[in-house]
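WARN retry 2 of 3 for item q-0093 after timeout on previous attempt; input resubmitted unchanged.
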Amino acid sequence: MKRIARLAEQPVMAWIFRKRFMKFGTVGASGVVVNLGVLYLCQEFLFIAIQSPGMRLNVSLAVAIFCATVNNFFWNRAWTWRDRKHHPDKHLILHFGQYALACWVGIVLQVLLTKLFVVYLYYLIANATAIVLASVFNFLVNNFWTFRSHKPVEEIALPNIPEPEDGIPDPEQDIEQEIGNK
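OK item q-0093 returned
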């Protein structure tokens, strides 16, 4: 437990353990449950009539990813980024469109990785692995674009890495000392 506490004190790790990222992870976990559940239902029951396993997986993935994206958008808007003002003139559908566009690369990454991993792994495990790998990208894009704040960037989500106290000389002081010595 002490190791975890010491690790959490490190600047980059402290950033990761911030509340917003933890909320995003919680919402993402609910999205994983929705994604895997819908994928299973589609693959095993809903689209069983599709004879080609590849085509059935494609259709099942599309439905599962759409359902998980809708789930995550509403929870992220209502909970993760609740403190950020939503533009009153931006319709909910337009905001969802922006969110979906922001997640598009992550979604494409998830599909490609799932298709790659399914060769070696059971399709649910392949999909879960792909979801984890795409989640960091999605957080950054959504934090800085979809649900952006109007505060200065350094106040939003960047890690606070302190400057070293000693050991690295300041080049400006060296130049000022040389000028003063002349």
